[in-house]
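Annotated sample (chain length 484).
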Amino acid sequence: MNKSKVVVLLILLLSFSKTVFAAEPPPEVIAQTAILGEASTGKIIYEKDMDQKMYPASMTKLITALVALDHLNPDALLTVGTEINEIPWDSSKAGHLVGETLTVKNLIRGLLIPSGNDSANVLAVAVARKVKNDETLPFEECINVFTELMNEKAKSLGATNSHFANAHGYHDENHYTTAHDMFFIAQEALKNQTIVEVAKEKNYTGDSAENTLESNGTLKTQNYNWTNHNLLITDNPYQYEYAIGLKTGFMDEAGDCLTAAAQKDGTTLISVVFHSEDPARWTDTTSLFEYGFNNFTMANLQKAGDVVNTVALSGHNRLLGDNLDTIIKEDINEYLLTEDIENLEKQIEYKSELIVESKKEEDPLQLKAPIEKDAEVGKIIYKLGNEVVKETNIYAATEVEKRTILNSIQYIFKNLTTHLFSVKGILTIVGIIAVIAALIGTIATIKSRRNRRRSRYIFKSNRRNRGHNHRYHDGPRMRKRRRR
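Output written by the structure step:
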């Protein structure tokens, strides 16, 4: 393997059905801008100028409902004030009365079913006064507070090309969004149970306080009979059997608009169309939904906890195994053209600092110890050709300890006892005995040589000592004899 290579790719063809599917072409959409995507994954499967600036009209009320429910309990009671008079004369209205008491949930109904601008103002004022803890906060300041919350919410959802100037969507040059941003807002709306329940209601008939004030004669309530403006929901020629909401919109500047959702076989699609004159907004939306449901499939690529790869180790405690399983911690699903599923590939990329540099290209990939359990070790990438479809991190399924002298010795003896009576074990024992015998023989030879050298040294030393002692004692006598 090239030492300069810091990313290792393991490409595996995913196993899916080999059935061949031929996708239909996308529909011809009359709307000026449009988008179609899958709700849970956020996968966009059709778009037409989805980032073009547009006016949302009453589709604004989806984000109004989200902000209101961030701060108010659906069962809470609110009393209507003069804020309902602060709307243009040609606004759509739910029909509230000053001094009337409603549940927050019924105000959400008034907001989404008959598209009441009066309902929007009641909710905006209630939220702003609660946030500021001031029940006397003037209407204009309440709208400033509430629209600031709307814009903050939009940005937090990824709707960064939007700006909201009021709570109801009546036309304002500084009140705009895009099809793409409305998709993000609709995604969030589908996570709120109150909005989901209300948006798919064909109509609502009942008491404003939902009969919670029957014994209280001092509070004013009234009965409502609201019909949903969304023709995909109600009984009419444009009804779509899988539709579950969400919100219509109309102004001269915005044209006929619709943010819609439909659910079939556990899959939820979101469609947004702008400036599509009736009945085109209904037919455009239905065509988009049919295109999505008929040509795309939710591919379940991996489940949370799945082992996505097993990789060899280096410098590790062999008592714990020689390989590491790598796992994911989330389900990986993607909404794909059915014909593309069999061509999907996955790549495993490991962190370069964990990869052992190898000398040969053909050497297997190894990760170096130590590695903590659940440590992020790389990522898995799903691709169609050169297009990245999905990616997520992968983690160590177990701890990888570093090799030590102690655990290496333990591994040798464990391996020996495990295979003691196998051919391998016997050969290992014979080999060890031979090595020990050779060592003993070598030691004995060295010891014998040392003993012989010592013996010769002692013998020579004794001879020298005897000669020296003889001269020492006899020398004077010899000298005396010479004198004579």
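Annotation: The chain has a mean pLDDT of 87.
Annotation: The longest strand covers residues 255-264.
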